[in-house]
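Q: Predict the assembly, please.
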Amino acid sequence: MTLTRESVYEVLGTVMDPEVPVISVVELGIIRDATVDGDEVSVTVTPTYSGCPAMREIEDDIRTALLKAGATKVHVNTTFAPAWTTDWMGPEAREKLRAYGIAPPGRAEQGGLVTLTRRRSPVACPFCGSSDTRLQSEFGSTACKAIHVCNSCRQPFDEFKAI
Amino acid sequence: MMVQQTTPEAAVSGVTTAAELNVAGTRGPSFGEPIVEYLLRLGDDRLILGHRLSEWCGHGPILEEDIALANIALDLVGASSMLLGLAGELEGKDRDADALAFFREGVQYRNALIVELPRGDFGFTIMRQFLFDAYSVVTLDALASCGHAGLAAIAAKSLKEDKYHLRHSSEWVVRLGDGTEESHNRVQASLNELWRYTGELFERDTIDEAVAAVGITLDRDALHAKWESIVNDVLQRATLTIPEKTVMASGGRRGRHTEHLGHLLSVMQSVARAHPGATW
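A: Predicted assembly structure:
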C-alpha cells in the first residue's frame, strides 16, 4: 500500500492519547505536520506540557502505528512553536472528553500577565451537567487536568484545563 | 571524582568526556558562546527548583498539594530539559540535556542561589516558589518576544505553564500570610530569610550584554518593576511586610554557590553517575 499524507493522518487518527484513550493525537492537536517521501514518513509533533511523561510514549506509538501501516522509516520531530493550546481541540474531541467523564477545556487565556484573583466561571459537571461545581485544585492526576467537585451529584471530576 | 573515559558514541548518548569535566575548576564563563551561558542560567534555575519541589513528593501537607507540587516540579524539569537541550546544541560538544544536568560540577551550575536553598517548611517552599514564579512569568513574557527564535519558542511555551504556577503560589501566600498567627509568622520568617536572595534575579552582567548580539535584550529594571508590583500586591493582601535594608546575596550565576547545591547534586546526579549512559 502506498502511503499518502492523507493515509498517514488516517493512521495517526487511530493513535490514542495514552492518558486519555478516547481522543487521538490528531484530535489533541499535537500533530503539526506530516510528510511522505516514498516509504519514509516524517511527523512533526509539539509537546502538550513541557514535562509530560506521556510524550515519549506517544512518539513510540506513532512510530509503531506507521511502521505497521507500511512505512519503512518514521521520523518523529519535535517543534515548540507555536506553543500547543487546548483551543486546537475541536468540538468532537471535546464531546468525547465529556462522555469519558472529563470536563472539556474552556477558552485559553490570551496574552498579558496572570490575573491573580481570577474568578473562574464554574465548570459544568460532565456527569449531571450541573454548573454548581467547585474547583478543588488546578493541578490533578496528570499535567493537563484540574480537579473539581460537583455540588449537585457529589461526584469529583477532572477538567482538561485550558492552556 | 572518578571520571569515565568514554567513546565518542557514549558522548552522543549523553555521557560527557573526561576533557570536558576537567574545566570544573573555573568559576567564570566556561561554556563558550554567551548564549550557552545564558541558557544554562535559565535551565539551571528550573532544574534545581524542580528538584527541590520534587522532594515534597509523598510528603505534601495535603493530597491535592502533594499532587500540585509534583506537577509544578514536572513542568520546571521539562522546561529545563528544553533549555539545556538547546544549550547543548549551541555548545556543539555533543552534550544533551542529560549530560549537562548530570555531569556538571556545582561550580559549573549557573542557577540563582534562591532555588538551591533547602526546601524548609511548607511556608518556606511556597514563599520561595511565589518569588520565583513572579520572576519567571515576567522574564518569560519578555523572552517570548525576543529575537532568538529557539529561546522565544521555549519561553512562550513555559510561560503558559508558569502562569498556573504563579496563581497557585500567590493564592497560598495570601492564605498562609492572612491565616492563623502561626502560619503568618512562619511565612513572614520565610520572606525575611528569602528576600536577600531576590536581588540576584535582576542582576545584569557581561553575559546579558553579549546576548544582545543574538537578539536578547531584556530591560532588567523594567522587569524588576513589574515583579515588584506583583510581589507588593500579593504580600499586601497576605498582610506580610518586606524586610528593610537587606544586603543582597549573589554568586550563583558565576558558579559561586551555597553549601546546599553540592548536597542536592549528590542526590540528583547519583543514579546517572553510577550507571553512565544507562537507558530503560
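The mean pLDDT of chain A is 91. The beta strands of chain A are 31-37, 40-45, 73-78, 102-103, 133-137, 145-150, 156-160.
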